[in-house]
Fold these 2 entries.
Entry 1:
Amino acid sequence: MNVAKTIRYGAWAAVALLVAAVSAVTVMKFVKEDVPQAATVQIGGPFELVDGKGQVFTDKNLDGKPTLMFFGFTYCPDVCPTTLSDMQGWIDNLGPKADDLNFVFVSVDPERDTPDVIADYVAAFGSHVVPLTGSVDQVKKVVKDYRVYARKVPLEDGDYTMDHTAAVYMLNGDLDFVGTISYQEPEETALPKIRKLLGSS
Amino acid sequence: MKTRALLVAAALVAFTGSAALADSIQHGDLTIKDAWSRATPPKAKGAGAFVSITNNGSEDAHLTGAVSGYAKRTEIHEMAVNDGVMKMRKLEDGVVIPAGKTLELKPGSYHVMFMGLKQPFKMGEELKVTLEFEKAGPVEVTFPVMKMGAKSGKMHH
């Protein structure tokens, strides 16, 4: 009886293995065919942060629209105001089409950039850009997942500045990273990139 | 008493007026011009100011620091974007302006950095900042405040 049982279990196990093998091959084939799409470097992904009102803001809030995302901080004297001002220029240029995009400013300095600080800072340039910050861990995760360079550099009296990625990230509606707009990139090249991003959604 | 206050006020206005009109300052061998800053968003704690300094002399000049009452600290900084990363550093030893050369403090490069702003800069204001030079000594420079995110001190509408 034990022998019969063993054989029966063995047979079932063999069937299970076969099924697993066949599905694996099928999946692999499927994945293989999909490779040109999936081979892009993994940058980005889901995130959970906090907006200027202190409310939770996740990738779901981007509503599947393409996104222009910038990482900065409010102590920043140059790159951040320049980029926010550039973003406002793009928004003005795009007109109503700007509504089909998300414009997001993510703080890499959550300790100083509380929701109300970053909200006031970003709002000063226009109402379109969403200010985001979060807990130290939330921001750390985004910085890691989005492969952003952000490093605290101590100054005198316990103050610090941040070295950080200065480019604007372009993400499509599926949150895939598709490229960047570099610091001080002229509108002549930045706008066609943005229009292409809009067209890809 | 009243008259004196008025006189002081008038003198102040006259002083501000002349400073605003003067688009370049001669300070020893140095020509200082095109000074400007830009309005800051509320609660911003950092700001930059920019200026062009030409050394007409035959010896190197040395910008050693900057002083103002607008922030906890006023310093000379260098900013650079390398490989897409913005880095900013205080220049502990200031900047040397070689003989016959012009040093441009401008966005994306050297700037006067205000760390820990006491209050935001508003468009139309004029900042008084003292630049310190090793040989030429200190000089007060007027920095008109342009709009937020302005890219230069040139007025364009």
Entry 2:
Amino acid sequence: MSARTAPVADVGEGRRPRFPDLVVAEWIRFRSLRSTWWALGVCAPVVVGIAVNAAWSDQANWPGYGPGVKEIFVPVWAIRDAFNDSAAMIMALVLGALGATAVAGEHATGLVRTAFTAVPARRSVMAAKVLVLAAVTALFGTLVAGVSFWASQAVLARQGIGMSIGDPGALRAVAASALLAPVAALAGAAVGALLRHAAGAVAMTAAVLLLVPSLVSEKYAWSAALDHALPLSAWDHLTSLGPEMITPEHPATTAGSWAVYVLWPLVCAAVVPVAAHHRDV
Amino acid sequence: MWRARRAGSLVGMIELEGLTKRFGGRTVVDGLTFGVRPGRVTGFLGPNGAGKSTTLRMVLGLCAPTSGAARVAGVPFRDRARGLRHVGALLDAGDAHGGRSGVAHLWALARANGLPRSRVDEVLAEVGLADAARRRVGGWSLGMRQRLGIAVALLGDPPVLVFDEPLNGLDPEGVRWVRGLFRGLAAEGRTVFVSSHLMSEMEHTADDLVVIGRGRLIAVESLAAFSARAGGGGVWVRADDQGALARLLAAEGAGVTRRDGGLLVTGVGARRVGELAAERRVVLSELTPRRASLEEAFMELTAESVEYAAGEGR
């Protein structure tokens, strides 16, 4: 073993570390986990593939569709080819799990003890982590939603039934699908900060994002309101274009759905640093 | 240089004042008050479950004390915005993400503290992990992870270093290296606070000792004072006619215990035992002045407070 290589003075004063340094540190942590890239790398082609496959079926079956379907195909079905339920559920599940493990995984492995000893300002560490998670997943969501829309509509264009991004509501649907990624990731991060157990946090995130919406009925005003307050229901409303097939008794509003998209990530982003600040690790 | 910059201040001092931690109804750390000084290696000893790790976690601000306080250089550690330049710590070799490489682990910590990447390469070379550092920590041995933990502690070149059971999993060469490292760090004027449940690990490393049991303070003294207290180990003697010798010694007022086919004699020196045997022509086959080992002294001191004692031998 070598002798001590650095005398006490070597590190010296150095730079005074600031919040952006914590953000870069969290970016290093995020990008240096291979499992993260596997999750995103598998999720993206699956989600895009579902959209392309749906569009391909529709353009192939187009000649056989009745006049009722053909009349409303654009925008009702065209946009559903780009963004359908199963693709959204996969997106929410993978990104939610990613957010949950990003936080709970650090507790489970004990890394938090090292991290909080290196930076006792815990809230700043967790705020930086949330920021990196939100930025990366927003970028990922934009990429996947953008490609899903473009590719599916390009396929539909073979029959002249594709939409363009300039069509009414198209941009809204793309934005809602893109933002589903950070919304789900931050929900997962909040659950991870509260449960601190990786597998438990992933299961709980899946339950909150996917299971609860399917259990809540739209029959009563209160349960419909609860349903509309969930991210996946908000996504469904924001990506539905054209006339409603069935008019629900308690319909969701566009403004309300956007409010869900704003409030969920804000509350979840706040939960992560607050939970870390108050509890022993 | 920190010594020049903060000369005469509390730099390097770790101070505990009535530090107490209760989990539910269980008091794990009970009113600890002591100080740890710079320029020395201080061993923090106690049996398993004595509260050593909980104490260190409170010193590092990871756990909030139920009452009392811990300060490093006069400041509760949690009040620092960044930690690595003030205190370097290795709590558990496993406190890293197994899916990340050693360098990535260190890069993130260094960047968060405004330290250059070159510093990461320096500490990796110092702990002997330069070649392994690009592999994922999950595949490393316990000894390699201990070295990574030591690299983290050295990263900010801090005046205070805290290590919890750092020798676990190290090979003999590694143990020797760590001891030399601790001595070197203390010689540079730093505070080195090292916990262990084995006295033998501290015997050749520590200058001062802090001994706790069941969360309570048992002893705070220099290793020299501790060893002096442990002295008077008696005389170990074997004779052809053991019974006769035992009677002679008892008549002389010595304490005699039969053990392992010999006699452990206390109260008289080895020379007097030899004289008595010569006078009565008892043939001795062994005569050894014996020093109680520090381990024995430590066991005796903490016997009352062993948290998890093994049952009687079967």
